[in-house]
Design brief:
The protein is of the alpha/beta class. It has a single domain, classed as Glycoside hydrolase/deacetylase (TIM Barrel, Alpha-Beta Barrel), CATH 3.20.20. Helix content is 46%, strand content 12%. The strands form two sheets. Strands 1, 2, 3, 4, 6 and 7 form a six-stranded parallel β-sheet that branches. Strands 5-8 form a two-stranded parallel ribbon. Bound molecules: nickel (II) ion (NI).
Length: 241
């Protein structure tokens, strides 16, 4: 059913293009009209998020596999990694994934001076704009550690998570998959790292397992939208119920 509905969305979008109202293919994100049409089931929504990338090899594999499965995800990027694979960042944007900030140097942001904070956060935004266009780039502070100033200075919503399989701890794909599939509830935000092949493999197994059960994978921004919420600057989101 999802596929038929999706086609209706594409047709509507194509009609709008003909009418000169929007560009096709849509750059980066879907219009709210398209979103409502593509995601009729609103009770089994999940946002997969990937930190610390992009990784030149593993993120490329992940993007290929997400595209095959029609899955949108959210990537919180690190500056030094972006330098290694800028083309993957462009690809993420072109394929409708959400891109966010995980600081220039993967530093803890609590206790930073405003100047250092802006170097880490705004600095990475300025690196990314030429690749993905000027758009909102939400913040995930490394380690999920922050303070009041983080919220004051973020200039975006702050995204944490509600499911954390600690995928950096080992390479046990089955453990990571089970941790996630045993716990997920509608509106969860799942934390993973696309710099590990085991995490990429686990993410894909989770998608294959849960899609069969009717779960749908969306970006954090889409998740908020579908739950009728707006992302507010300086507000922390761990899950969206
Ligand atoms: Ni990190």
């Amino acid at each position: 059913m999802g596929r038929v509905v999706k086609r209706v969305g594409a047709c509507l979008a194509a009609a709008l293009v003909v009418a000169g109202l929007m560009a096709w293919p849509p750059e980066g994100e879907y219009s709210s009209v398209d979103l409502q049409l593509t995601v009729p089931e609103k009770e089994k929504l999940l946002a997969l998020t990937f930190d610390d990338g992009p990784h030149p090899e593993h993120t490329a594999v992940l993007l290929d596999a997400l595209a095959q499965r029609g899955v949108k995800a959210t990537f919180f990027l690190v500056g030094c990694q972006v330098e290694l694979a800028p083309e993957l960042v462009e690809r993420m944007a072109a394929e409708g994934h959400q891109i966010g900030i995980h600081t220039l140097d993967h530093v803890q942001v609590n206790g930073l001076s405003q100047r250092d904070f802006e170097r880490q956060v705004e600095g990475l935004r300025r690196v990314l704009y030429p690749l993905v266009g000027e758009r909102e780039l939400w913040l995930r502070p490394p380690y999920g550690i922050m303070d009041d100033n983080t919220l004051r200075w973020a200039d975006s919503p702050v995204v944490l998570w509600s499911v954390d399989p600690e995928d950096w701890k080992d390479t046990d794909v089955r453990r990571i998959v089970r941790h996630i599939t045993d716990r997920v509830r509608d509106g969860d935000i799942v934390l993973l790292h696309d710099i590990y092949p085991s995490s990429v493999e686990a993410a894909l197994q989770v998608v294959d397992c849960l899609q069969e059960q009717g779960w749908q994978f969306v970006t954090v921004e889409q998740l908020l939208h579908l739950k009728g919420r707006a992302g507010e600057n300086g507000r922390v989101y761990r899950a969206v119920r």
